Amino acid sequence: MNDVARLAGVSIKTVSRVVNDEPGVHPSTAERVLAAIDQLGFRRNLSARNLRRGSSTGTIGLVLEDVGNPFYSGVTRAVEEIARLRGRQVISGSSDEDPGRERELALEFCSRRVDGLLIVPAGLQHSYLVPEMRAGTPVVFLDRPAGDVVADTVLVDNIGGTVEAVTHLASHGHRRIAFLGDAPDIFTANERLRGYREGCVRAGIGYHEELVAMGPHDESSVRTTLQRLHSMREPATAIVAGNNRITVYILRALAGVAERPALVGFDDFELADLLSPPVTVIAHDASALGKAATDLLFARLDGDNSPPRRVVLPVRLVPRGSGEVHA
Amino acid sequence: MNDVARLAGVSIKTVSRVVNDEPGVHPSTAERVLAAIDQLGFRRNLSARNLRRGSSTGTIGLVLEDVGNPFYSGVTRAVEEIARLRGRQVISGSSDEDPGRERELALEFCSRRVDGLLIVPAGLQHSYLVPEMRAGTPVVFLDRPAGDVVADTVLVDNIGGTVEAVTHLASHGHRRIAFLGDAPDIFTANERLRGYREGCVRAGIGYHEELVAMGPHDESSVRTTLQRLHSMREPATAIVAGNNRITVYILRALAGVAERPALVGFDDFELADLLSPPVTVIAHDASALGKAATDLLFARLDGDNSPPRRVVLPVRLVPRGSGEVHA
DNA sequence: GCCCACTATGACAACGTTGTCCCCCAGCGG
DNA sequence: CCGCTGGGGGACAACGTTGTCATAGTGGGC
C-alpha cells in the first residue's frame, strides 16, 4: 500500500480510501491510484485490516474426525455452503478421533481468531474452550456432545435409530440380532449400543452380551467377529452395524458368503441401493447436520444469546431389503 | 497481552518473552505471567504475530471443485495430512466448476496471505494469479492444467487411461463402445474423450460421433442417452464413463435392466468391487494426487525455483468383470 | 572501590491497515 | 477583502505482536 501510494503520488490513506470505495476522492486521483494498484499487483492484506478494525476475521473453524469419510465431507460441504452465503471462509482439520489433536486444532483456530468453531468432539474434555467461549467465540458441537461444557449441540437420534433398526429386524422374525459398533468411548457408538439394547428389550428378544462386538474395528476384526457370530450354537441371523465404515467392512466380509445374515447399517451411503441385496440403513443427512450446526453458529454470531440449545435431528429407516425377509 | 502485562505487573515485552519461551526471564516472573495468562484466558493473536514478523501465515489455500465428491475429499485429506506435518492449516473452498467462484476463492485466499495455493481449475484463465505468483506465492494446479500461465501442475494420465479402457473392451470383442463424458470445456473430460477416440482408432473399431455423449450430465440425461445408445440400429455393447459421477448415474440407470452393456468407469469408487457385476474402473489415487501436489508446493516453499514442473500420475485399469466378457 | 560482564527487564518502533482529526484551498456571499 | 463552507487529501495513532536496543541492577575479578 505504501508502494502504491508512492507510485501514485498520494498518501496511503488515500489509497485506503480508494481500496475501500470511500467517498471523497477525486476521480482523477482514484484513477491514478487504481493504475498503480494494477501495476504493482497490490492486494490488501486482510489480516492487517481485520487486526486494525478489530472486526471479524471472516473465518469459521471446523474440526471433524476425517474429511475423507463421505459422511464428514458431506458435513463440510454444507458448512462451506452456508459460510459462503455469510461471507466466511472455512478452515478445517481432521482429528482422527484423537482428543489431543482435536484440542490442538481447536486452539489453533482460536489463535487465528475464527469467528466461530464447529467441532465434532473426539474427546470428552472441552473445558479448554471455556476461556474462548467466555470471550465470545461461539462454539457448536456436532454429531456428538461436548464432554464437560454446556454449549450448543446438534446430534442425530442415535438411540431412536438403532431401536428402529432392531425393531425392524425383529418384526421380520429375527431373534438373534448382533451389534457391531465403534469404540465404546465414542459417544455415538455408545448411544447406538444403548439403542440396540433398548430395541432388544422392547422386542422381547433380550439383550445378549455375546452378540455385541464394540470396536475399534478394522476389516479383519470384523471378519473374525462375523465368523464367531456365525459359528455360535445359536448363530446371529441379523446384524446391526454401528456406522458406515463398519457396514462396508461387513459387506466386504460377507461378499461371496452363501448364507448371509440380514444387515441394517447406521449411516446411509452411496450405492447402498444398488448392491445385491440392497442394504437397509438408518439414514440421516450429513448436510442437514452441517446446516443445522452452522445455522446455530450464525444465530449466535447474530447476537442470539438464549441458553445453549441441543438439537436432535431425526433419522429414518430406509428399508431396502438386505436379507430381513428370509430369516 | 496488555491486560496480562498489567495483571502480572510487567511490560508486554516480558509477556511476549514468556509466551514465546524466550530465555532471560526470571522463573518467578514467568510464573506470575503464566498465572495471569491462565486467569485471563489469554491466547496470542496469530494474525498480529504473523503481521509483525512478516513471516508465513501458516496457511495453505485449496480450491477444488466440490469437497462433497469423494474424489476431492480424498485429495483434501491428503493435502491436510501433509500440511499438518509441515505445520500449516488448510483453508478450502469449492468452486462448483464456476470459474468466477474459483477466482474469487483464490484471490480471497491470497488476501489472507496463504503461503501457497492448490487449485483444481474450473476455468481456463489464470492470469489473474500472475501478480501473486510474481510476488512469490507458489501455486500448484491439480488434476487440470492452468489455462494461460505456466505453473506447476499435477495431472493424471487421462488419455492413457481411456485408451486402456477402450483397448480392454475391444480385446473382449466389443466394437460398439460408447463414451459418456463430462462437459467438454472441462480439461479432464476433453482429454478422456481424446483418449477414447485414440483407443477406438488403435483398436481398429473407428470413431463414431453418435456413440459419444458429452455433458454436463445428470441422472436423467444419462438415462436418456443410454436409451438412445440401446435403441440404435447397431446398439452400443459397452460404455466408458468419464468420471465417478457419471459411472454412478449409469449404474442407477442400468439397475434392473436385463441386457446390460459392459462398463468401464474413470475414477475408482468405494464398493465398486461389491456391486454385481463388479465395476471395472480406471483407478487413480486421490491421495496420491493430493500428496504429489502438496509436496511440489512445499518444495517451492523450501526454495526450489527450478522451472515449473508437470507431473503426470499413472492410472491403472482394475478389471473387475463388469460385463466385458459376454459381449 | 572500580570496571566489566551478565541477567532481567522495559521503551519504542514497526508490520499493513483504517479511524480520527486536521489542514489546505477554491468558491462564494457579504 | 473577509469569513465561511465544503471537498479533497494528509498526519498520526492504534490494532496486537515482536525485534532492537537501552538500562538498571548484581556479582565477580582486580
TrEMBL record, chains A, B:
Tell me the protein's name.
Answer: LacI family transcriptional regulator
Protein's UniProt keywords contain Cell cycle: no
Q: Which residues cross the membrane?
A: none
Q: Which residues form the HTH lacI-type domain?
A: 1-53
> Which GO molecular function terms does the record list?
DNA-binding transcription factor activity; transcription cis-regulatory region binding
Phylogenetic classification of the source organism? Bacteria, Bacillati, Actinomycetota, Actinomycetes, Pseudonocardiales
- Keywords, in A-Z order: DNA-binding, Transcription, Transcription regulation
Alphabetical list of PROSITE patterns matching this protein: HTH_LACI_1, HTH_LACI_2
Q: What's one Pfam family the UniProt record gives for this protein?
A: Peripla_BP_3
